[in-house]
Structure formats: C-alpha cells, structure tokens
Amino acid sequence: MLGPEGPCWVGLGPDGGLAVSEEFRDVWLFGSARQPPCSLGDLTGHHFGSPADVCTDTAGSVIVADEQRHQVTLFPWARAPICLVSEGLRWPLGVACAPQGQLMVADAENGYIKVYQSYLELA
Fold it and tell me: Is the pTM of this model over 0.85?
C-alpha cells in the first residue's frame, strides 16, 4: 500500500480528508475511503526539507510548516506552491489558520507563536 512511512503530524485535508506529514519526506493527502492517498510533492513538484505541521484553509488549500527549509508554504489547488513566510522563522513546527485569514506559526527556536494578520495578502 502506498502511503506515509513514519507519519509525524496529521491535520484536516481538503474535502474533509486528512493531510499527514512524514519527517524528511513528503505530505500525503487522504480523501474518502475509496480514494488512494496522493503525495503533495508528486502533485506539485515541490521538494520538502522536513515537513512538520499541516493545516487546510477555508478554500481547501493545504498549508505546510517545513522545519528544515524554515518556511511556511501554501499549496492552492490548480496553482503552484507559494511561500507565505520564511523571513524570521528559525524552527517552524506548528501552523494553523483562522477563518478570518490569520496565520499562526509556532517557532520552536525562540518559543514564539507568530501571528500574521492576513496570510492571503502574503500570497
């Protein structure tokens, strides 16, 4: 069976599925029970360093915190990945987004939760 080896973080994926990150590998998207899992890296051509936390915004786009590349990336459907934040991030381990457009990033290096008021403007 195809799927993640050594899952690290799990979050809601697009269309009510799951998004699961693998340390030093990829992010896998799981849909309904009838759909096989798919690799976000294979779908987009994106090369992850070490994907940590994952979340999905209200539009169904996946957002990934990559601790090795020190960035947070948005994966919108039918478009290329967009780096939302890289400046000032040392060890991004957690990511969440609010319906109002705020992006929260947990930076474990300095113990801060960084809040960006409108991540859609960053894209």
Answer: yes
- Cα 74 vs. chain centroid, distance in angstroms? 7
pLDDT tens per residue, range 85-107: 999 899 999 999 988 889 999 99
Parts of the chain with a pLDDT under 50: 1
Domains of the chain in sequence order: 7-118 (2.120.10.30)
**DSSP-H helix ranges across 9-123:** 40-44, 119-122
Neighbours of 94 (CB within 10 A): 17
Q: Is 28 helix (H, G, I), strand (E, B) or coil?
A: strand
Number of other CB atoms surrounding residue 68 within 10 Å: 14
